[in-house]
């Protein structure tokens, strides 16, 4: 373990006091840092819950601009043999594809992506379904000046996204489809930042989208999304948060957050593995039907009648009446 410490930065150890009676352990090899108030912080909640159950948990943060360290960390924990399960997520596909086959006895959980290997449990989220609800709400908010007085009443909304990737296109397709059910003539600007970390660029692009008429901007940009929410607030328009509940960051402007229940899926995966029920080599999807994604309203901004309309749309997806478009075929 001494050699491991030299190659790892920003290590967080949780739940150490319970190790004597529970030898199950889980480590998360990150390609980013905590503190984004979104994806990464949501993931941490699952590990925190597991730590309270006596699981040894370690989170290995790394600079998002240092992919060499991501690979080093993954190789180090895999070589150590100290972990019951190794978690990793976004940006780690090629690294995991190279490392996991070298350690066939080591269990891995790969979330927010998919890798077909016998020792990997893949976990993905139906972000298109959650984004469908976000689109429904965005179109209502854009066109209803009575309940949403910061809007112009025109069916103009926007998505400011990190990068043009399949998972991001899944967000966008669902969002567009949901918006079109409310306003068939809706105009949806789609703007890419080019990364998931440049909050200033995200802020500037959000301001541009609003100058071009957007009444509501959907944040699909990870840590950079904090700039989107601030840009909407500074422009006195509406925004929809993502991954975690971001409503409180700008409570007069963020009308809802489309949450991917990453922490819940991580905790659930640990429980399944401990019980011997996890299906390695397969993909598990968390969507609206199993509460893997959802919309958390800002109660101060979204009236009950509007919530009811969005919830009607959710019911149609859950019971199969409506199929949400997806970027994954």
Supply the number of helical segments.
Answer: 10
Question: Order of strands in the sheet with the most strands?
Answer: 1-3-2-4-5-6-12
CATH architecture of the largest domain: 3-Layer(aba) Sandwich
Strand fraction equals 15-25%
Structural class: alpha/beta
Number of strands: 13
Global mean pLDDT = 92
Q: What is the CATH third-level topology name of the largest domain? A: Rossmann fold
Question: Distance N terminus to C terminus?
Answer: 43 Å
> Helix and strand string, N-terminal first?
HEEHEHEHEEHEHEHEHEEHEEH
Superfamily at the CATH H level of the largest domain? Response regulator
Uncertain parts: 1-22
The outline comes out as: globular
Highest CATH level, the class of the largest domain:
Alpha Beta
Q: Can you summarize the main beta sheet?
A: 7 strands, mixed
Radius of gyration, in Å, reads 20 Å
Count of domains: 2
Helix content: 25-40%
Question: Keyphrases for this structure?
Answer:
329 residues; alpha/beta; Rossmann fold; 2 domains; six-stranded mixed β-sheet; 21% strand; globular
Outline the structure in words:
The protein has ten helices and 13 strands. It is of the alpha/beta class. It folds into two domains: 149 residues, Rossmann fold (3-Layer(aba) Sandwich); 153 residues, Rossmann fold (3-Layer(aba) Sandwich). The strands form two sheets. The chain has a seven-stranded mixed β-sheet, sandwiched between helices. The chain has a six-stranded mixed β-sheet with strand order 8-7-9-10-11-13, with helices on both faces. Helix 6 links the parallel strand 7 and strand 8. Helix 5 runs parallel beside helix 6. The N terminus is likely disordered.
